[in-house]
Specification:
single chain; 360 residues; alpha+beta; Beta-lactamase; 2 domains; five-stranded antiparallel sheet; three-stranded antiparallel sheet; 10 strands
């Protein structure tokens, strides 16, 4: 499995592409459904959903395509979509709220926060801030597979037990570089950061996210792992791009990427996704409703691009999601696709369309 890069890199890349790529031509009064459908057909996507908000209100939303190819089950606006690495921004917000409670600090070290966990000397002085900025030298774990990362497939026990075992394994691995130097994108880095919050509060990660992020923002259709589950079949299935188009991803029991929950394993409706994006937009405007001013400034400086739109994206070979923020225009858009989109083509096309339709 491949987790996509966060927006610190994507903002620059997508900004360049948005300025140059062609845009579907839409009729003057066409709905968001129409625009999404054009993009879906152009890129041969399985399905997608999107929301546009201005001044804190939904001004457009739409859906296109199927929950699962080979069926007639159409995407609905309240369907839950996996959002990939956009989860990291939510994890960071949760950690910020734990910091505001006085239970953590940006400058706490791994040696202090995980005093009972054996670790290499190179990791002892790595700080929480460095974990959040990918400058702690933590191995990447961007690609996951039985041959690439067999250690993940050998772990047993509950999710919490597997995560704890993975942390112990991780902190004995060779660092990818010296702490405090170059940023090296890492899913394991955010997994480790989340465990500091778990350790500091005595609460599990999912409970912390519900308490600190989902409920305060009014997010109700959220969860973890695949949106489609045996006990919840009316949700989008993930799709992999193949030589002859997209195919439904094989169902898997206890997929190893669950260990990286905090880095990219959340799912939610695009309406909820838009509510989180609205929080992010407000925070960039200096109106953070959940973090104290000093904490907000430090956290949101982690991934703040200078130009508009500010774009944050996530994805794997089986999913794609992103949101774009125009703080000066008080405008935001979110899109989620139930299939992988190489180089975030779907996100680029949709943000380009919305930029011209609503942000001009």
């Amino acid at each position: 499995m491949v987790f996509a890069k966060m927006a610190s890199r994507l903002s620059v890349l997508l900004g360049i592409v948005l300025a140059s790529m062609s845009t579907p031509v839409l009729a003057q009064n066409s709905s968001l459904n129409d625009g999404l459908d054009v993009i879906r057909k152009q890129l041969n996507l399985p399905g997608a959903a999107a929301v546009v908000m201005r001044d804190g209100k939904v001004i457009a939303e739409g859906v296109t395509g199927l929950r699962r190819l080979g069926t007639e089950d159409k995407i609905q606006i309240d369907d839950r979509f996996a959002i990939g690495s956009c989860t990291k921004r939510m994890t960071g917000l949760m950690i910020g709220r734990v910091i505001d409670e006085g239970k953590l600090g940006f400058d706490v070290t791994l040696a202090k926060a995980l005093a009972d966990v054996p670790m290499r000397d190179e990791y002892r002085n790595v700080t929480l801030q460095q974990l959040l900025t990918f400058t702690g030298g933590i191995p990447a774990y961007e690609r996951i597979g039985p041959k690439l990362t067999p250690q993940l497939f050998d772990l047993d026990g509950s999710l919490a037990e597997r995560q704890a075992k993975f942390i112990r394994y991780l902190l004995q691995e060779q660092p990818v570089g010296p702490a405090g130097k170059d940023a090296v994108y890492s899913n394991a880095s955010y997994t480790l950061a989340a465990q500091l919050a778990v350790k500091a509060t005595g609460k599990d990660y999912e409970s912390l996210m519900d308490e600190k992020v989902f409920r305060p923002l009014g997010l109700k259709r959220t969860g973890w792992g695949r949106p489609w589950q045996p006990n919840r079949t009316s949700e989008p299935w993930l799709h992999l791009a193949g030589p002859e188009g997209y195919v439904p991803e094989p169902d898997r029991v206890r997929p190893p990427e669950q260990i990286f929950q905090a880095a990219g394993n959340a799912h939610m409706s695009v309406r909820d996704f838009a509510l989180f994006a609205q929080y992010e937009l407000n925070a960039l405007q200096g109106k953070d409703g959940l973090l104290k001013p000093a904490t907000s400034r430090r956290w949101h400086a982690v991934d703040r691009a200078g130009n508009e739109p500010v774009i944050r994206a996530g994805g794997t070979p089986a999913l794609s999601a992103c949101y774009a923020l125009w703080p000066k225009k008080n405008l935001l858009v979110v899109i989620a696709v139930n299939g992988g989109s190489p180089e975030h083509e779907a996100c680029k096309a949709f943000v380009k369309m919305v930029s011209e339709k609503y942000a001009a």
